[in-house]
Automatic annotation (TrEMBL):
<protein>
    <recommendedName>
        <fullName>Release factor glutamine methyltransferase</fullName>
        <ecNumber>2.1.1.297</ecNumber>
    </recommendedName>
</protein>
<feature type="binding site">
    <location>
        <position position="141"/>
    </location>
    <ligand>
        <name>S-adenosyl-L-methionine</name>
    </ligand>
</feature>
<dbReference type="InterPro" id="IPR040758">
    <property type="entry name" value="PrmC_N"/>
</dbReference>
<dbReference type="GO" id="GO:0032259">
    <property type="term" value="P:methylation"/>
</dbReference>
<feature type="binding site">
    <location>
        <begin position="118"/>
        <end position="122"/>
    </location>
    <ligand>
        <name>S-adenosyl-L-methionine</name>
    </ligand>
</feature>
<dbReference type="InterPro" id="IPR007848">
    <property type="entry name" value="Small_mtfrase_dom"/>
</dbReference>
<feature type="binding site">
    <location>
        <position position="183"/>
    </location>
    <ligand>
        <name>S-adenosyl-L-methionine</name>
    </ligand>
</feature>
<keyword id="KW-0949">S-adenosyl-L-methionine</keyword>
<dbReference type="Pfam" id="PF17827">
    <property type="entry name" value="PrmC_N"/>
</dbReference>
<dbReference type="InterPro" id="IPR019874">
    <property type="entry name" value="RF_methyltr_PrmC"/>
</dbReference>
<keyword id="KW-0489">Methyltransferase</keyword>
<keyword id="KW-0808">Transferase</keyword>
<dbReference type="InterPro" id="IPR050320">
    <property type="entry name" value="N5-glutamine_MTase"/>
</dbReference>
<dbReference type="GO" id="GO:0102559">
    <property type="term" value="F:peptide chain release factor N(5)-glutamine methyltransferase activity"/>
</dbReference>
<feature type="domain" description="Release factor glutamine methyltransferase N-terminal">
    <location>
        <begin position="12"/>
        <end position="73"/>
    </location>
</feature>
<dbReference type="InterPro" id="IPR002052">
    <property type="entry name" value="DNA_methylase_N6_adenine_CS"/>
</dbReference>
<feature type="binding site">
    <location>
        <begin position="183"/>
        <end position="186"/>
    </location>
    <ligand>
        <name>substrate</name>
    </ligand>
</feature>
Amino acid sequence: MNDLPVTLGDALARARGRIDPVDARILLREASGATTAQLIAFQERALAPDAARCYADWLERRAGGEPVAHILGSREFYGRPFRVSPATLIPRPDTELLVELGLHQLAGRQAPRILDLGTGSGAIAISIALECPQAEVWAVDFSPAALEIAQSNALALGARVQFQSGSWFSSLDAARFDCILSNPPYIAEADPHLSQGDLRFEPLTALTSGADGLNDLCHIIHNAPEHLEDGGWLLLEHGYDQAEAVRALLEDAGFRGVHSWHDLAGIERVSGGHL
């Protein structure tokens, strides 16, 4: 695109048919400083040259498939901005269900201890720490790059989280918790969706887990009882077609009250149970 857009309306028109209109508005809003209402009501408003160049660059990157979160360097989750990078999963609205369920299990406890396994950007752990200040929140990830992002998010948002480097439970010794949450890798290694959309830009190690996508879920379920207090809950996000398998794994491991919860799209997205 050699020439630059000169108005807000021109900028949105140039994105038409190339990227999703919602993405176009988000990019233009960030580049121009205009509000969403202004993008709609004042499309004749002039676009400053620096903003036009920034937007044009972002438009090309998004048209090439790069996620909006990576272009902007952040993504909103549970009403707060979280820094993201190619080293972490992009937080998604469906995962807010995991936070809601975790907070529900902590309600009424004086000083609960909670663990977020595979924390990535830290979105789950930080959200719970901020919503439940009396909780002692731990978060684990094996990726140094992901932990750096998570720690920077905790600092920026003022959350108290104890971060640990390690693979799942390996760095926790005998520590026990009232609730363990995880959004682990759960996509099958040969799933065609891995070569589509935003998934192409996210770390495979945070996405795939064996031929059926259940390897990490099995590992967490098998080892969680050693790190849960009596009555402690394990809550796991999983794929759209894995709820039945995850419930069976939980029951085989001795969990009670096993249940699956639906996300915003009506899909069984989180399953869990208690000891």
